[in-house]
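Q: For a teaching session next week I want to show students how multiple molecules come together into a single three-dimensional assembly. I've collected the sequence lines for a complex. Could you give me the predicted structure tokens for the whole thing so I can convert them for display?
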Amino acid sequence: MKIQVVKNVLNANDRIADENRALFDANKLFVMNLMSSPGAGKTSLVERTIAALKDRYRIGVIEGDIQDTCDADRVAALGIPVVQINTGGGCHLDANMIREALGGLDLDHMDLLIVENVGNLVCPAEFKVGEDIKVMLLSTPEGADKPSKYPLIFQKSAAMLLNKIDLLPYLDFDKDKALHDAKALNKDITVFEVSCRTGQGLEQWFDWLKERIDRRGR
Amino acid sequence: MKIQVVKNVLNANDRIADENRALFDANKLFVMNLMSSPGAGKTSLVERTIAALKDRYRIGVIEGDIQDTCDADRVAALGIPVVQINTGGGCHLDANMIREALGGLDLDHMDLLIVENVGNLVCPAEFKVGEDIKVMLLSTPEGADKPSKYPLIFQKSAAMLLNKIDLLPYLDFDKDKALHDAKALNKDITVFEVSCRTGQGLEQWFDWLKERIDRRGR
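A: Of course. Below is the structure for the complete assembly, covering every listed component.
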């Protein structure tokens, strides 16, 4: 019975996601759905990515949070159009929330839309919003057991940024195990070892993302 | 419409939680529901707490995970009875899952039951399971903005363990802000600054917990 309800919810979500997708296609817009645990560094990555790519692309951001606008404030401070979705307790963004938020953005004059999901390693991975790619962060303090414990998000993500790599000397983090287990779940996942605090490793991420946005723009 | 469904789910959950509560009362069992983001240190805290209290109390553990048994394996290695709940994708434990798990434990010969929830800073706080207290961990690498972004879990918790305090020298973590904002949400929350890796600060936590278990046992 419970599973039936969940299926209906997900089916209904997928229909709206497909409509969002058609709208993104019509505007040749590349959409990235960014997911991670709370505090893994999503907003820091968004800030770094905007700084690196804003001269090349027109960027917009949708910020998903339970409440408050502190992430959106950080993005707006960079002069980037941003729409805040407050889920009011909900633990993920769904396609309908994104559809509502799109009304606040000028899609026709945008190349890259970054959707920063609610901090949660579970449910966001279940709800597609019409994105081109899902991207996840795993931060080193979270531990190397996360792929085996939260497999879906690793399976669904095109790229994984292993963030806070600068903290490795101070942690008991088995990087080889984390990367091995992530690849075992998703052999196609592209991994970047980065620090959004120091900037380490981010150039490769920018290059990878640029290639995908350019391909989309053709 | 959506809110109506959620209300029904929560009402149904609360009824079962009350039944669990009656069972715990009948057995004079103290039950702690432990919650945090993924990788904040729940299982490490469970291990430390068992090591410190197992000569004084008879302890049991329920481990909640999406899949796998690696946390339960860690607890079982300490010689403590443990039941694993695999939610199969679900992002929190609910009262009915706990009721099912109780069949695997000898409640009549137990003083403390630790329920380790699924790693998630959002949904676990919404579902009571019949516990005496909710306890949360916030780990320093997650950042000081967590209280303002995930308020419910701070509001519902009797205690907050600020874990990974040993990493403070390597982080941009505004501890004063985090503690101020947590207290603003819940003036009664008791805060412990700890490191489950080094053991720092845990004695105060053990004393606090012992006092509550002893009071319960009367």
